[in-house]
Design a protein that fits this description.
142 residues, mainly alpha
Amino acid sequence: MVNSSLPQTRTHRDSPSHQKHRRDVTRQIVLPIVLVTLAGLGLGGLAIYGVAVQSDGVSLWADIALIWLIVPMMLVALLKIALLVGLVYGLSKLLNATPHYTGLVQQYALWLNAEIVLWTEKLIRPVLNLQAWMGILSKRKR
């Protein structure tokens, strides 16, 4: 029996770039998600502890929970307002520059429309004339 040894080939999972990718995924994606989840669970547990153990501080913990609900929505609203302000500013600048160019574009569009109509009529006229003559000739044969 011949013992043939195949050359050792490296799979893509053994390559240094794949190992670096796996480290980067762990460090840049998995770790932050786990830490934020643990922080949220910790804050939730702290709020439950404050409500369950300290009956005189229930209002304080309710206020803290309300802040945690309002702040993200407020940040999203501020982001939307900033985007809206940017769009309004950009459109105002664009509208100051566009009247001259939109007039030119409209002139060229009207010219192009007139040329298309003219050439279409020139192309169709012989066909219509032929059909008219064919109609006249077919009526005379009857």
